[in-house]
Amino acid sequence: MEIKLPIYMDYQSTTPMDPEVLQAMLPYFTETFGHPASRNHSFGWAAEQAVDAARGQVAELIGATPKEVVFTSGATEAINLALKGVVEMYGEKGRHVVVSAIDSRPVLDVLRRLAREEGVELTEVPVDKEGLVSPEDVKAAIRPDTILVSVMMANNEIGTIQDMESIGRVAKEAGVILFTDASEAAGKVPVDVQAMGIDLLALTAHKFYGPKGVGALYVRRKGPRVRLSPQIDGGGHERGMRSGTLNVPGVVGMGKAAELCRQLMPEESARIQALRDRLQNGILERLDEAHVNGSQTRRLPHNLNMSFAFVEGESMLMGLKEVALASGSACTTATLEPSYVIRALGTTDDLAHSSIRFSLGRFTTEDEVDYVIEHVAATVNRLREMSPLYEMAKEGIDLSKVSWKAD
Amino acid sequence: MAYSDKVLDHYNNPRNMGSFTKDEEGVGTGVVGAPECGDVMKLQVKINDDGIIEDAKFKTFGCGSAIASSSLATEWLKGRTVEQAMALKNTAIVEELNLPPVKIHCSILAEDAIKAAVNDYLEKSGKKAPEAPAEKAEA
Q1: Nearest Cα to A403, choosing from B31, B46, B15?
Q2: Do A311 and B3 touch (CB under 8 A)?
Q3: Is residue A314 within 8 angstroms of chain B, CB to CB?
Q4: Could you give all domains of chain A from N- to C-terminal order, each with its CATH number?
Q5: Helix, strand, or coil here: A168?
Q6: For residue range A97-144, what is the model confidence (pLDDT) as tens digits?
Q7: What is the distance in angstroms between the Cα of A394 and the nearest Cα belonging to chain B?
Q8: Of A262, A220, A260, residue with least CA distance to A239
Q9: Nearest by CB to B38, which of A338, A391, A405?
Q10: Which residue in A190, A258, A293, A330 has the fewest CB atoms around it within 10 Å?
Q11: Nearest 5°: CA angle at A367, between A361 and A369?
């Protein structure tokens, strides 16, 4: 069977645009190019109409109303708006925030900076070995001066999906705003801000076959009405929450991508999950000492994160050069720190260095999966031949008891 | 960050990958690094009575640059004397493999592995360490 190399299996990093999304966007570059805030002529009205339609499509994807959708330049900006916006608006009420230990990088970076510079007190709730946050732990962490709880809906590295309904109930009972970074979940699994008791939610188009450079923040208007201190001023667009001329083609693309995901989701997630399971089983059948990281019951259908003992992640990626993947190894980061998510599961550091993330998507084929299975097995076996750790393990040495001469 | 051709070459065609039998005569073994750090290098040298490194072998758990550094080290060690081996500097490895700044530590680990292997041989054979700068007295 003809496979096009290189194979893309890094859909959780970003996705190609769906051709239908590109088609939907094209008229808005040179034909319907008006400014959506131009109230006085047909160019503006046409653009405004397109934006309204997109707003509705995004709202439908998450169970919200159009007025509750604020367009941004992506999830990172939406996260900044939500977190800083809440702290600034409600800061007199309290400055304590509860956050998941495996929340997303932007969430943790923003909150830690607020802790360092704005007197925010942060409580990080640990996760269990599957990456699940316990609603009871969240409840226990909430104090009278807590103004925000943040729990990422589905994790980007290990795919674990949190019990948002229960966490939402806890937050509601305590009267605390619940924010979630849903950028990995939206478009892949059902999201319902009402049923889940979510007050603020971030998502970004490029994770669900839309364009890069556009995202949205859901801001609850009823039960309760959440208010935010805007982070970008200058014109009062997006109900005063985010000024600036909208990226109309991008917004239209995001809407179309959202609509496609909502329509395709039941069939698509089943199909992709079957491919993911084929990949997982195929690898586990061929290799010993290969472990799946994260929950296998509450997991994104397209995610597979595995550690291969005795073999380091970056060297694996080098051997799988015709396949696009990601690794939790320190050698793949600029900071030389291994994945904080894998470590938070209680996994030993060496297994963090040995972790590989496979993320499948809309255009993944069975032939690609079979190719990857064979090459993963071959690469791991080759690297194990080269590995002093594998050699020691085969000799029966307990690696955890060795005293290493690290510098 | 694309890998340098030389690093890829060592990765795809590692030189002297493998192990000597543990009790073989004239073999010194050095194991440096730690699994928690994501880098473990095992370097072995086989030294004859004239103090020349006849053969060298390596096994590495680590990224492509670490594998290449240790593979290159075994290439350079063969035919060198003990003194020459102890004088090998990581900077030479960095230059040869075009290692970027973030991978320099791989070359340092390779230099450590060389010294550890040679010192192990010296300890086992009861020989004295050669005169060399920054040398720790063994035996």
Answers
A1: B31
A2: no
A3: yes
A4: 7-12+265-401 (3.90.1150.10), 19-260 (3.40.640.10)
A5: helix
A6: 999 999 999 999 999 999 999 999 999 999 999 999 999 999 999 999
A7: 14
A8: A220
A9: A338
A10: A190
A11: 55
Closest in A312, A386, A404 to B14, CB measured? A386
pLDDT digits (tens, 9 = 90+) for A183-217: 999 999 999 999 999 999 999 999 999 999 999 99
Does ipTM exceed 0.95?
no
Cα(A333)–Cα(A314) distance, rounded to whole angstroms? 10
CA-nearest of A163, A164, A98, A154 to A126 is A98
Q: Which of B46, B61, B43, B62 is nearest to B116 (CA)?
A: B43
Token code pair at residue A293: 């990281």
Mean pLDDT of the B58-74 span: 95
Sign of the Cα pseudo-torsion (A253, A256, A262, A264, in order): negative
Instruction: State whether B60 and A353 contact (CB < 8 Å).
Output: no
Which residues does chain B have within 8 Å of residue A405's beta carbon, measured at their own beta carbons? Answer: 31-34, 116
Decide which of 1.10.10.10, 3.40.1190.20, 3.40.50.80, 3.90.1010.10 is the CATH code for B5-125.
Answer: 3.90.1010.10
- Choose the catalytic residue: B86, B94, B97, B106: B106
Q: Which residue reads 């080759």 in tokens? A: A382
pLDDT of residue B135: 47
Per-domain residue ranges of chain B: 5-125
Instruction: Give the helix/strand (H/E) hosting B108.
Output: helix B104-125
Residues 1-30 of B with CB under 8 A from A: 3, 8, 11, 14, 17, 19
